[in-house]
Design goal:
Elements (H helix, E strand, L loop, with lengths): L6 H26 L10 H54 L7 H21 L3 E2 L2 E2 L6 E4 L6 E4 L8 H4 L10 H51 L3 H37 L1
Antiparallel strand pairs: 1-2, 3-4
Helix pairs in contact: 1-6, 2-3, 2-5
């Protein structure tokens, strides 16, 4: 038993410090919900987690691009659906104009409505989506993932396609048969255009679903690295708490040992 150097107290204090550190770590994990509250907890895991989070963010951005492109296509199809209705009516007018029982005044009324609908069809060609033209026929490249992959979205051409522009000069008065042929050609082209839009939407939806699945997997992988297991952390907290309490009591006892040695001298 010595007085000058209390080895028992020093050893106990060291263990108490370790227990206190374990208790602080458990408290930090339970309060933050994360296993990694500082780089020293798991430096490699933190690096992997940062990469996963970055990729997840990039995928989310690509998903937003796809969502905007889907909105673009849906806007296109909304206009084309209205054009389809207009073309159907124009074909009816071209047939009605061939009725021999109709007077020239009646046929002129058909022509007036036909012209109005033809103007509508061609005016739609100037529409845009957030400043981007909807119907110039330009293919648009959509970024579909975090690695820069792209999808070439087929464009629709109403602006310069003669199939649609010739409708403005078609006449059900002078040649209703030719006008009907022009309208029929436009309907055929419109069906093809809507088919292209449908293909765009289907493909973009597939890419969007793919990104969603990938992000779910990335989130699960990151959770494995970063998220605290509450049951395990609670057990570690209880253990550390007991060690701190017992260590504190034992340190008090160790600090009292020199007093015992002093009593021997005094005795």
């Amino acid at each position: 038993m010595v007085i000058n150097t209390n080895l028992s107290a020093e050893s106990t204090a060291q263990y108490l410090q370790q227990s206190s550190s374990m208790l602080s770590s458990s408290l930090a994990q339970l309060s933050s919900g994360s296993k990694v509250t500082s780089p020293s907890d798991d430096s490699a895991g933190l690096a992997v987690s940062m990469s996963l989070v970055a990729q997840e963010g990039e995928n989310t951005a690509a998903g937003n691009n796809i969502a905007d492109s889907l909105s673009f296509n849906q806007t296109q199809d909304g206009y084309l659906s209205q054009i389809s209705t207009a073309l159907d009516r124009m074909s009816e007018l071209a047939v009605q104009a061939q009725d021999v029982t109709k007077s020239s005044a009646d046929v002129q009324l058909y022509q007036n409505e036909f012209n109005s609908l033809a103007s509508y069809v061609n005016n739609v060609a100037t529409e845009n989506f957030n400043g981007v033209s909807l119907f110039t026929g330009t293919n648009l490249t959509v970024t579909i993932n975090a690695t820069g992959g792209t999808f070439n979205m087929t464009g629709v051409n109403l602006a310069t396609s003669t199939t649609f522009t010739t409708l403005t000069s078609a006449s059900v008065v002078t040649n209703a048969t030719t006008a009907l042929t022009d309208v029929t050609n436009a309907i055929t082209q419109l069906a093809s255009d809507r088919g292209d839009i449908g293909t765009n939407e289907e493909t973009l939806t597939d890419y969007s679903n793919q990104l969603s699945t990938l992000n779910n997997n990335l989130s699960a992988a990151n959770s494995t690295i970063m998220d605290v297991d509450v049951a395990t952390a609670s057990t570690a907290y209880a253990q550390a708490n007991i060690l701190v309490q017992s260590g504190t009591a034992m340190l008090a006892q160790a600090n009292a040992l020199p007093n015992l040695a002093l009593k021997l001298i005094q005795g």
